[in-house]
Amino acid sequence: MNDRYIRLLENTAIRYVTAMDYRTVRELISCGCLGEGEYFDLKDIKRIYKDQKVTLLSDRSRMIISEVIKAEDKVKKALDRYIDITQKENIRIIEREHEDYPFSWKCLSGMPPVFFAKGDTSILSDITRKGAASIVGSRKPGRYSLYATSEFSKALSEKGVAIVSGMAVGIDRMAHVNCMDIGGRTVAVIAGGADVIYPSQNRDIYDRICSEGVLITELPPGQEVLKQYFPSRNRLISALSDVCLIMEAGLYSGTLHTASFAASQGKDVFVLPNSIYAENSIGGLMLIRDGAEVLIDVDTVYDRIENEINNRRLLINDGSASDDERDIQSLRRLAKDDPEKLNEDEWKSVVCDEISEKPRNIDELCISLGIPFTYLSSIVTMLETEGRIANDMGRYVLTMKGY
Questions:
Q1: Which end of the chain, N or C, is less surrounded by CB atoms within 10 Å?
Q2: d(C-alpha 124, C-alpha 190), whole Å
């Protein structure tokens, strides 16, 4: 483990073992004791304690800094534990500057500067181009809600949308499992350390998600699951998604936290309608009363996700595009300006990228890409043969291989 990651883990230990909080950190930054976004360690705290600028801090912050220094042994013990678990469990540390840090989190305040992950973290960066839907609900759902969860999870996964949930029993489990069953991409956001399996009966999908999807948490390795961590976990679920699907929620369900966070983050919230006589559905029906949309069909949900993807494209084109995005953008420009310079594989990439925005028929592709019908027809045929695209009622859509 390199020095950078050890420093990040030591910073995490200080935050979780001592009374150091964001309020004190902001004060340290405003007084010039710390640089903006700096990850401090014990050495920095000791330096600050001796710095004359410390007199500019409030009594509260000076007391906290003093307590951090007194807790040095506890911090070092926690750091050693974090390092040990991280290495044994193959847990990755993702900071804001990492390529797999979710783009949607960068656009919101209050997101963790560092989080921990197990599995394929590239799924998180893929969400920027392909979209994500959070599917959440009751831990003891009815058959109707479970069936709908299964259908929506599979249908959205088939369109390349990542399914985000909290790895709880009930709706969460159904969403994760049905996504993975068809080879889709799923993200589990949990309320404990990345090595902590909660609930214990979900060990099977924990192992499967770590193998076929990705599991993430803002909490340090070894941290047990506590009730107060669930609302914070729920804000990350909604922040990672383009839309939020509430499949079943009682009046006091924690699922309502996710819906509330989604709405405050500007995400569309869809609620599966259910019986007004079912206690487990009252919370969801109240969301509909308060303005949430009724969940009826996959196409409406996917249209909203597409809108969010296109909005991100505009932001990315303003200067924050990844290398892959810049590559496909340059190919698209070349396709319009000097199409003869593109080889066969490059044309395939351009066609797949065009279809990823919206399913299109052959005529629409000809118009949007400016490719002669005869040449485009051969490209499309090759892509179908390779299994990267499929014809769905006259319109071409990407398969999982096409992404």
A1: N
A2: 15
Which residue matches tokens 């350390």? 193
Taking the chain (403 residues) in runs of 10, the rounded mean pLDDT of each run is 90 93 85 77 91 86 94 96 97 94 90 95 95 97 97 97 98 98 97 97 98 97 95 96 97 91 94 92 94 96 92 69 54 68 83 78 81 81 87 78 56
Measured CA to CA in angstroms, residue 112 lies from 134, 155, 197, 293, 383 at distances of: 19, 31, 21, 29, 40
d(CA 261, CA 267): 9
Q: Where do the domains of the chain lie, and which CATH numbers do they carry? A: 3-88 (no CATH), 92-304 (3.40.50.450), 322-402 (1.10.10.10)
**Which candidate, 185, 145, 172, places its Cα nearest to that of 234?**
172
Please provide residue 197's backbone torsions phi and psi, each rounded to the nearest 5 degrees.
Answer: -90, 115
Q: Which of 294, 268, 253, 293 is nearest to 171 (CA)?
A: 253
Per DSSP, what are the bridge partners of residue 243? 133, 268
Take residue 369 and report the two structure tokens written for it.
């890409």
Nearest to 222 by CA among 6, 2, 9, 8: 9
CA distance 258 to 376: 44
